[in-house]
Amino acid sequence: MNLDISLGDMSAIERGLREAPEYSQKVLEATMHQATLLVQREWQENMPRVSGLTARSITSDVASTPAGVLGIVGSSQPSALFIELGTGPHMPPIAAMEPWVKAVLGIREPKEVKRVAFLVARKIAREGTEPQRPMERAALSTRSQVIAMFEEAAGQILQFITGGKA
Q: Which of 12, 15, 38, 82 is deepest in the core (most CB within 10 A)?
């Protein structure tokens, strides 16, 4: 999922990048770092948990490119994509379902865990899984905060280039 945010009047940032590029770049990188951490935290909180491995795999990074400052929030776990978008029908490995059966259904007896894991896997083989959209919800719920962060950054840049007379 891509989150594109339009800030409207970008003239302060554009002017800052022309007149004080190092300062403006520093402010934009710091703001992007703050914004990506906010989205990362929200996504981690929205992520359903069994072991917590998928939630812990969510990270953020900021990079400066010739085109601007880029913020990335992502996961190294394929399961994050499956949770976000759901899956088509497929037969998952039964062993992979066992931790879920224990954690979510509270079943502890080993034979019963295997039996229920097989039944859950068969249901997924017939129906797939529904999308849960934790990243989409994180992006949407933090959108206004991210916009406010960049509007504040634009004001900070304008104040710097006008010598506090903005």
A: 12
Instruction: Convert the pLDDT of each residue in 146-157 to its tens digit.
Output: 999 999 999 999
Torsion of CA 10, 13, 18, 24, to 10 degrees: -160
Residue 124 and residue 139: Cα distance in Å, rounded? Answer: 28
How many other β-carbons are positioned within 10 Å of the β-carbon of residue 78?
10
Spatial separation of the C-alpha atoms in residues 103 and 97, rounded to whole Å: 10
Helix (H) or strand (E) holding 115: helix 110-127
What's the pLDDT at 3? 60
User: With contact defined as beta carbons under 8 Å apart, do 146 and 154 qualify?
Assistant: no
- pTM for the model stands at 0.86
C-alpha to C-alpha distance for 93 and 100, rounded to whole angstroms: 12
Query: What three-state secondary structure class fits 146?
Result: helix
Which run of H or E residues covers position 60? Answer: strand 58-65
Helix (H, G, I), strand (E, B) or coil at 84: helix
